[in-house]
């Protein structure tokens, strides 16, 4: 098999705080191949955004990549200088955020920003860059792109702004696109339009995508593989069908049971008790144990290691959820 | 027959968007610009029975929160009447109006923004019931402790401030504050939108438990169709200030009638692991400052025909208990149909 476009191995990211050194990402490993979409899901604070920022080389003091490796097409990124990283960012790896104004400059016209994004990495004429910017806007479904190039970000609706941010991120046909909850704040109708466009673009360009979200239903329709994070670790990973149909980890199982639309109306949802631990107070053993119905003394003492399962799957759990009858058949 | 707990009769709410500085300057030069009017809620009729849960869905800006505020008495309607147990709220005397305001409580989306950061939880929850004479000041501690227990909060945390709680716990504090004045109706505006799914499930379960224990009536505003499907008995779908479909939940989700409802349901991401093609609905919700003529939905509607641009379709009963505002229901047997370029409808 071809080498993965993005290969993250045993990544550890920590932050120096008043409460001491806190580990936000604790040994995260995953690969993404060309044209593949990895859905990175988990509750808030589980370390999804920090993982995404680390891939972008955007972890700033007091944070640091304590150990591990991030390879782009086999090339190590950890330890590179800020200058080298800047040349890679926006060209070979791009990121979109929940708030598109993170990437858009409110005082510059859209054309200025997009042309600048191209010319920062390539010596092309202004006219050629502008043509490419116009095509990019058209690709993400912006009507009359030529006129819209002359507009400022505040003249767009939230959904349109997110489209502009995506078009800008894709201008240089990056090998990797990291998307951190880019549709969370949008209406389902607009979310669906944007997901459709992103899906086509990733397939056409062969972009490797990491799609970060807390919404399992979004990755269900979009991703090829899914990685579930809890308290800084990937606790389960595998192809989307396998994970959603027959979750192995009790946390994944609980998350799926919490989604309202899947349950019968009026019947209580299968809730996970309690809440995710703060980084300063991660319980010993398996960090999920205080909320887990399957927890035993072993779970309270020992951190479960990664175990491989059939169907290209991995989970970290001492007492995995038994496979449902239907899936076993 | 006892009257319904809430009745909205031809309720509208208008906001005036004043001219900004640039527009005022333009007027000095004779541009003749006028302040624009937003019809956030446009001629809504709705009856809610005691003990019922009515979901209110629609895209951002369609008027859900505004309607919720009118229902809960936070805003008065510009036109039309709101009746509480058959009595016109606008014509109530001071005492009766205050009792009604307490009986219909609103719970907001962002609990942090709606909780006073300088008040302890005991006062956030206990102040209003004491002020309104529902409990004696000396019984406040015990009363607050009881309510905190009901919503699953540890009563020993009552001397704390809001920032010392998690998002899910703050949502519970907001619910406890509303419950403390012994309401009959809760208007929940995106009350679980800011929460993680596992915490959202806890709060939704709490709403359902309270419904049964206290015989509460709910108006549940949400853009999340999964949440609304789960919790509601009936669902009202709004588009640009108007209710376009109103139906029992099961029937609405099984066989949506209005083209907008159909499109909206198509877009809901489902927990089914299938790479799917997203998106059938084109374009964005138009500006409420300048809504399209006739049926507001016509520029985005795949079935639109000539009449849709001209006539506003009325919300009509299409089956027992089911209402929809679409001309296609009168042009039978055209549905499901497709509009041709010249506006005729083809049966398919
Ligand atoms: N106080 C106000 N002054 C002027 N316009 C307002 C005011 N409140 C709401 N509006 C306008 O009324 C319309 C309906 O707003 P509303 O807040 O009810 O929408 P919503 O359906 O709750 O949307 P969301 O899903 O984004 O919460 C919008 O166009 C909004 O901009
Ligand atoms: N700059 C920072 N300083 C200290 N802690 C941080 C910083 N950024 C993130 N963290 C912590 O790292 C953990 C993971 O955060 P994040 O990746 O943002 O979570 P999410 O999964 O919600 O995206 C959280 O506990 C967060 O508080
Ligand atoms: S290791 Fe134990 S506590 Fe952790 S998820 Fe598995 S069963 Fe639950
Ligand atoms: S009235 Fe016409 S435009 Fe409106 S929903 Fe029905 S078919 Fe579509
Ligand atoms: Mg995040
Ligand atoms: Mg609202």
TrEMBL record, chain A:
Membrane topology note: Peripheral membrane protein
A Pfam match: ABC_tran
Gene3D superfamilies referenced in this protein's UniProt entry, alphabetically: P-loop containing nucleotide triphosphate hydrolases
Any one GO BP annotation for this protein: peptide transport
Domain spans labelled ABC transporter: 6-256
Principal location: membrane
Compartment list: Cell inner membrane
PANTHER family cross-referenced by the UniProt entry: DIPEPTIDE TRANSPORT ATP-BINDING PROTEIN DPPD, OLIGOPEPTIDE TRANSPORT ATP-BINDING PROTEIN APPD
Similarity comment: family membership: Belongs to the ABC transporter superfamily.
Protein name from the UniProt record: ABC transporter ATP-binding protein
Organism expressing this protein natively: Salinarimonas soli
TrEMBL record, chain B:
Superkingdom to which the source organism belongs: Bacteria
InterPro entries for this protein: AAA+_ATPase, ABC_transp_ATP-bind, ABC_transporter-like_ATP-bd, ABC_transporter-like_CS, Oligopep_ABC_C, P-loop_NTPase
Keyword Nucleotide-binding listed: yes
Keyword terms of this UniProt record: ATP-binding, Nucleotide-binding, Transport
The keyword Transferase is annotated on this UniProt entry: no
SMART domains documented for this protein: AAA (SM00382)
GO terms of biological process kind: peptide transport; transmembrane transport
Topological type in the membrane: Peripheral membrane protein
Localization, UniProt: Cell inner membrane
Primary location class: membrane
Domain ABC transporter: 23-265
Listed GO MF terms: ATP binding; ATP hydrolysis activity
Xref: Pfam families: ABC_tran, oligo_HPY
Cellular component, GO annotation: plasma membrane
CDD domains reported in the protein's UniProt record: ABC_NikE_OppD_transporters
Family as reported in the entry's similarity comment: Belongs to the ABC transporter superfamily.
PANTHER family, alphabetized: D,D-DIPEPTIDE TRANSPORT ATP-BINDING PROTEIN DDPF-RELATED, TRANSPORT ATP-BINDING PROTEIN
Name under which the protein is recorded: ABC transporter ATP-binding protein
